[in-house]
What does this fold into?
Amino acid sequence: MITLTCLESRQQNGFQQYALFNIEPLEVGQAITLGNSLRRMLLSDLCGCAVTAAHFQMEANGPLAHLSYETPIVHEFQSVTGLREEPLEILLNMKEIRFKPPLRPGIFLSSSDLEPIIGMVEVIGPKIICANQIRFPFLPIEKQPKVLNPSQYICTFTSQESRRFRIKLQIETGKGYKFAYEDSPEKQKETVTKLTFNEFPFQLDAAFMPVERVHFRIKTIHDEYGNLRESLLLEILTNGSITPQRALQESLKLLLDLITPLFINSAFFDLTKEIEKLKLNETSHLNKINKGANQTKD
It folds into this structure.
């Protein structure tokens, strides 16, 4: 009987999670088939969260704030008074933020499960802004994603208390890698509507993959009867938004969901029925021949 065992599990670099699994015994040649399939599923088919759009707004603070005018931040290379970094550097820093979606036991995450989430950062200078200052004012606590690397640096706001700086960001659920502006014009317009500060939100490339590295190796073993078998050693490293155990469980389920329809497809059953019908006809025909031969002898 094939068994799956976790040989080692640990946390590293603050939030990454590593685990080593052993699957055995397998027939010779099956380990590389299973290892390749699981590796592809783990790296490309699991869902995760990432920042996909952002907006920056600088405004005056105080009783006369409504009389002042601030130049809108509309492109990545704009020099903004009061910010140490350009918008492009801020966007690159935000791409490094890791989020853990609200997961429920036994329920696997799909790209259509969660609506885009709006996060907010609002500070009065001077201030160093990090990921732990992101708030989700439009969501109850139980539905808010968790920031896995709260010390991730975003930017430095150097203005005095007379100015306020706001960041509004959109977090989406997806799988694989998504290029900025790859959505249709209709979907881009929908995103602009959600980011209501102005009509110039910044779009970001998003890497949704929760699994960062998968490595497997094959070891030759012998079963209890002395037969030659194989053992599959599978190493999984995640970004902390999902445990390696859950990642492996999800990948196995996805693999089953891919293969199972081949067995329940009507065409498969039709072919099986045709084969059985041919066998019955062949048997009936042979019976008639044998019966005729017996009658001739009589």
Notes: The chain has a mean pLDDT of 80. The two ends are 56 Å apart (CA to CA).
